[in-house]
């Protein structure tokens, strides 16, 4: 075995948008971050200027002053030929449509009395919130208003007011989700939770922590480190704990510690009528009542706004070893991941990258990793146990054509390696900086993973698009990043076709269309096929009971807002039928 080391990158910034946009726009020289920093300084009070200062008023804010009914939602042209502003990039075929009602003046007055200065009508700020930072999905409209509540009570008052006036709500966390989750196709109110980021209480002896939803997992781990504790879920850098609950996310450590579903003890949630519900006690187990915690986790803001979370924590491992190994094919690599899990070793991470993804990592980070299918492992425990696991897996790898088995024990080197892995998605844009990425997220029973990756890889390699493979291989969860030129419709359709191929293959293997990224606006079309009509009907009943006016993220999970009442599932079903009949290419809009 050969020990290796990595130089520490200092380029990583904490805000996910910064990193993503840097990769995406480095080739064009555009600098879209100016407006982001402006919002941040406004919220923190750093600039000292109110969002309502006259100098800061945008054209749409002025419109607000002049009209009694507000129409601030100018995104893309709609049927009435209203003003044309930004939106998708030329093609409208992946734009989510929506129905937009002008905001009643009374409602905006109410909202302003609740939020005071923490409310923005600024066009750029609304546009920024209406455009996902990490996905290609676009919507016809953008939010009419962005609010930044400072307390649970404020959230409740905002939601109550929205419910009274039947105004759509989109909760907003770190905006790292990748299925168009934070779009506001019907306009309405974007509730940005970033001002609610306190650690409310830490119980070291119980190994749990109570936090507000806007805190990021990385910030939380910085806070916990001196106590020898950490929170083991690691989705996109910049993701918030509230958004992570809402998407039921996981990450590279889920193979050891489970997903968000397994790591939340209880929640507080503001329901559509403004009621604040606590879903359980702080006890680790409870058999009392329906499991409302698990109902809310993964509900993607469609059932309520999460305002407080109690999380299970883990001890920072005494010792760890990170290892890497190359293989001639991705199937060999996947076979080793499966054999490792079958050996009974409790790896804490096992990640697979194909040769294209390694090339992207090399280009983006100035690295020189062998451009071959690669497995990355982390072993934890005592020093002796970590090394023993490393040796066992080295043997397994050798039996499956593994070469160049290397490992790291130095703390900085290990941190650097996982950082590079975590940013692998953004690294892809180093290959095609002006392209968009379609990211697949299928997950299958572990025994099926090698076959799924092998058949998918054949399709991906045959495509003219650049496609990379990244897998949380110990969980049977694998992603492809498919890069396409958003100005070339045929390329987007080709990406859709590949995505659909993998979803259909995974479903045949009793898998899922989304292992961890969630449904958003992008995966709705697969739900009926995966879950069955009875399942969807049950979800519809839950949604109608908790949100009778269909105001909570009305477009996610297939809701729609034409008229005031809830209209759910028929649309995704129709969409899926169209997919089936018309050769599997269709608009994501409905
Ligand atoms: C580079 C990169 C790597 C990634 N890696 C992973 C990975 O390994 N594993 C993984 O699972 N995901 C991964 N993701 C996806 C993403 O980080 C997760 O989906 C994350 O959980 C989203 O959190 P967020 O705070 O950014 O949520 P947002 O994007 O802000 O919102 C997501 C959804 O949650 C809702 N929401 C947000 N806050 C609340 C709230 N307080 N109450 C109710 N609803 C709310 C929103 O309305 C929206 O529907 C990655 C993303 C990127 C960009």
UniProtKB/TrEMBL annotation:
This is D-lactate dehydrogenase (cytochrome). InterPro entries: FAD-bd_oxidored_4_C, FAD-bd_PCMH, FAD-bd_PCMH-like_sf, FAD-bd_PCMH_sub2, FAD-linked_Oxase-like_C, Oxid_FAD_bind_N, Vanillyl_alc_oxidase_C-sub2. It comes from the Eukaryota. Its cofactor is FAD. SUPFAM superfamilies: FAD-binding/transporter-associated domain-like (SSF56176), FAD-linked oxidases, C-terminal domain (SSF55103). It comes from Kalanchoe fedtschenkoi. Residues 139-316 form the FAD-binding PCMH-type domain. PROSITE patterns: FAD_PCMH. GO terms for biological process: lactate catabolic process; methylglyoxal catabolic process.
